[in-house]
Specification:
alpha+beta
Length: 284
Amino acid sequence: MMRMTMRRWFWLLNFIMIIALITGLHRPGAVGWVRQVVGQSVRWVLTPVSWTFTGAQTAFNRAIHPPASANPACTRMREHYQNEIAMLLARSRTLERLLRASRLIHRGFPGISSQQLRAANIDGFASDSSDTCVLDQGWSDDKRIRRGSVVMARLSVVGRIVQAGAATSVVRLLTSRRMAPVTASIVRPNRDGQTMIARWCLVRGLGRGRMRCMLEEKLGAIPPQRGDLVLLNDNDWPPEVSGAVIGVVTAVSQSRRGNLRWDVHIRPRVNMEQTRHAVIVLGR
């Protein structure tokens, strides 16, 4: 059987075209059928050639522009920098929030450097007492947060940290019965500043948001009264918080032990159950 080569196909198509031309001169209606047969034959012959050129072009494009999966080193590098940019942007937003918070703290706590203060949220209170609260800050947030750190709210000393964890801290409030008594002064605000009522008194927590101290009734002393302020005056506490308000006098009565002593009832300046924010005074 004779093998059809490209040259033979070429002469065959020429022969068919000549026959179609002669037939069209004598029978015009047969031209359409012959044209269809010739067109299909030409497409059948040229299809392998077109497919060959298309495949060659695709291979060439892949060689010049390899897909991302063909270069794993570039892919890993691009992903690395995308991750780094995302992390740096997140840290930048965090630092911006801390900067705004430190500026607010510095304006609200004069005399204390903003580097010594750490803003915190109050997560809740101990189940057995309202005199122990939990803050959302721990030593992983700042290594200077530790047991004994002073906690303030609204420029008033409210307690000290008794347990510093990685993410949270437990604060014992001054109103707790388990808090060690603190030395304080009692003053009375007036137009010229304040009047000293008692330079020293020992304030003890009674629990449930209450405190108390006993004052000796000395000759010529000014009796304490409702509305007097109680200020921290204890050498065992950091000097940065010396003189800070810890409470206000709510009632004064004669001591049951004798008429020469005043029984002074005190409530905290800040009701911790009604606030959600606090500040930790960090150690140096």
